[in-house]
Design a protein that fits this description.
This protein is of the alpha+beta class. 44% of the residues lie in helices and 23% in strands.
Length: 154
């Protein structure tokens, strides 16, 4: 179990580095009402060279906090036993890297302890989950479709 403090510390490190990203996956689904245990934090990163360089710089600067392989990283909060598995993506099932700016402009913003977290927009998240073709996403898709219907009826 990861505390809010560890999650917020990680999100703040991204914000302080000026990294452009949106949260998707189980964390984004929870934001829209589908609460489920998550084994990792899924992030979609802007693929521009400057953004990738900022991520690399963050990982090198805080190398004591990160163990990085391929496009996954383990973030460890110093002085605790907590860690987060983070999956970084530049391209999704339904969206190309070139779609990031458009989706980023439509993002939602969550706030935890005065920390703003960019969340993939509900319509985009639903599109992504459907495009994944993953049968494990069926319940999430139904819950998100219900949330979408409620929003449209307001």
């Amino acid at each position: 179990m990861v505390s809010n403090n560890t999650f917020i510390s990680f999100i703040n490190s991204l914000a302080n580095a000026g990294i452009q990203y949106v949260v998707l996956g189980g964390v984004a689904s929870a934001f829209y009402g589908h609460i489920q245990p998550v084994s990792k934090i899924d992030l979609w990163l802007a693929s521009q060279k400057e953004n990738v360089e900022k991520l690399n710089s963050l990982i090198q600067t805080d190398s004591d906090k990160y163990s990085f392989t391929a496009f996954q990283s383990i973030y460890r909060e110093p002085h605790t036993d907590e860690s987060l598995l983070i999956a970084f993506s530049f391209k999704l099932h339904a969206f190309e890297a070139s779609d990031f700016d458009l989706c980023y402009a439509r993002r939602e913003k969550a706030a935890i302890n005065n920390t703003i977290i960019p969340i993939l927009n509900l319509d985009d998240l639903l599109t992504e989950k459907i495009a994944s073709g993953d049968p494990k996403e069926e319940v999430a898709i139904r819950v998100l479709q219900n949330a979408q219907n409620i929003r449209q009826s307001l």
